[in-house]
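During the reporting period, our protein records have gained a structure token line. A sample record is set out beneath this paragraph:
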Amino acid sequence: MLRSDWNDLRCNVSGNLQLAESEVVDVLAQFMEKLNERNGGIYTLLRIINVEKRRDSARGNRYLVELELMERGRSVVRLSEYIYLLLHRSRQGDESRENTDSAPASPPSAATSALTTPPSHPPSSSSARALATPGSTAYAKPLLCQPLMLRWRRDVMVHFVVPVKNQARWVQQFISDMEELHRQTNDENFSIIIVDFESEDMDVEKALRESSVPRYEYLRRGGNFERSAGLQIGVDTIEDSHSIVFLCDLHIHFPPNILESIRKHCVEGRLAFAPIVMRLSCGSSPLEPDVGGMNTEEFKDRWGGEDWELLDRVMQNGLEVERLRLRNFFHYYHSKRGMWNAQNKKPLKGLRSLPLGGS
């Protein structure tokens, strides 16, 4: 279950909050019933892979359900999609609005492997319907719906943007991690964009050229290291406005499921993703161009707070920000000796350092 900032500030908890088993069983029982009603009873639930919940105090609860199903007793398929459990509705006008943003249960695509996620289905041109049909006025039983505007794309391009300067060891580690990610997933739909502030301890472009990453972009910039400016330079080179931009630090370890996790939690114009990083040793994304990009003036040659400032603008533009802890997504411990502009690394007063950011 997604956790609020209140949990982090007030409660001594670690990790994501656990959903009650009874709630999961109840929601999935309703979902499987409606799925089979609309598809001739051809699906059998084999395994619950993952269920995430986000509370919506105004309308009900939203769930991301990931299930392994048997289709017609022959093939195994994987279903991964968002559903809403609407708690109440009191006016005819509300019903129309809800049905506009809902769709009937769609079957998952057949797959030869249980690890294959079905492609998202395009919204129907006709009026969408809810999974259950209530009366025209108030009703007591929760209504199960599929939101049309929360269909994630399994093949959308993901760009990792990283600014660097004189961090040869960590640049090589990052490239190696990206090579391993490609080897384990065979996913061709991601690229790395490295903005190099005239590194003198290695030939970054050569390392990229000799690597096995599917796509890369090397950008060289002079002057002092400027994290915000470097990130913005990288973002500005991306031509496809419908792709996903993942801004990150150099010292991050990525789990094999990072690409799928990013895509599931990034829906254009609706959802942005900022996973919480676990820090080793002593301590533990700008997906919408209209939010204005990185603040390159206020955070010109310092960092610590620029990511929070960007997230504030993402939310002000109407996007929800998903905050989850991912297994094996962590920040390597490293010495800060010899780091870029160490004398300027002073966070502005009153600003927090984003868990994803910082060095």
In short: The radius of gyration is 22 Å. The chain has a mean pLDDT of 73. Residues 101 and 149 are 7 Å apart (CA to CA).
